[in-house]
Amino acid sequence: MKEKTILTPFLKFVKIESLSGVLLLTTTLLALIWANSPFGESYQSFWQYKIGFSSPDFELNKPLILWVNDGLMAIFFFLIGLEIKREVTIGELNSFKKMAFPMFGALGGMLVPVILFLILNQNPETSNGWGIPMATDIAFSLAILNLVGKRVPLGLKIFLTAFAIIDDIGAVLVIAIFYSGTIKIGFILTATFLLAILYFLSAKSLYSKFLLLVFGLAIWLLFLKSGVHPTIAGILLAFSVPVRQKITTPEFIQKLSDITDQIKMANISEKPILCKEQIEKIDELEDWTCKYQSPLQHLEHKLHDWVAYLIIPIFALANAGVMVSGNASMSTGLITTIILCLVLGNSIGITTIVMLAKKIKLIEVPDDINFRHIIGVSFLAGIGFTMAIFIASLAFADSPAYIDSAKIGILIGSLISALIGFLVLRFNPFKAGTKTSE
Q1: Among 206, 238, 287, 401, which one has the highest count of C-beta atoms within 10 angstroms of its own C-beta?
Q2: What CATH number does the domain located at 2-180+229-244+294-426 have?
Q3: pLDDT digits over 364-383, tens only?
Q4: Domain ranges of the chain
Q5: Tens digit of each residue's pLDDT (9 = 90 or more) over 203-240
């Protein structure tokens, strides 16, 4: 019973991400069809339509696509930050033993694609795209993994999710260090001061959603104007959300019992409404429930569906619409390089480093995960859709042709990786629940 209690939240996470992957695929196809239809010009003009306001002293006027990439994606990164903090403090990454297996996989999945890009890329103008193939799309990869069914052990899903999260950490650091503009120190110092206040309050177990929202908007705006990409603000804000509850489970259960007894003893009216005493006790119960909930877990739970079913599909719709017909300005070299890095870089990097680490006993691979499982998942790691497109838009911000070329490479490379990974796992002779001799 205890094992079921532990695994149920993870299985729910997998289900949400899998459905999100299906929705992501649908909006991607819709964007491609729209951009290459007779109404293709309307696709471009729609996402370039400027929204905002300006005054003599301040201006915030951006194309719709940048409101998606700088604004909505900050919420996506905020959720990523919550997931990272949860995994590092109480989850699958809270000890070196748990972290070692996915960590070595993530290192292979980040380093080898980057090295392969630097080797294959022959155009100095596209050298800034080295970060594109280094991150795995959790939603797409888990959706494909879920299609394989019972042939996949739960440990493999945990491994894929954990190393994808570590990949995200690496991608966030890369964006912060290498893909930010000219940094204005004054704005950064002000944002740091506001973050320090939130971190101090979190350390004192003081938390307010209203304060987080107000400070969050201010910090996002400061990052936007500072030259550091504003999505980084989402990550840093997430780290200020406390993990622990204000009261323990025994305290909550005792209070719940007391409130239940008091509601029973209150005067019960025959009308279908609560009496004054019952309303007061319900309000008290809501207060105690808020104290009992983990602020981080509560926020993650509330945001997950919004991000999975709305923000990421909107991002795909805004960014995946590439005109692929008759575009002579496309860079074939960049397209080919990204495809090879996604397909071969991730599969070779993850498989080689994981098996080498296992050979020299730096990690322990679960008994129900065999060599073919590792190969299959390493190909799924080449599905780099969301983060890859995001990094491409930063790497080639001044060159729309290179952005489109990178997007085509990402789409083709991700599709090939998904197909190979699915086939390797689907025709794996070992079934979930059986131990391997490897």
Answers
A1: 238
A2: 1.20.1530.10
A3: 888 888 889 999 999 999 99
A4: 2-180+229-244+294-426, 249-289
A5: 887 888 899 999 999 999 998 888 777 888 888 899 89
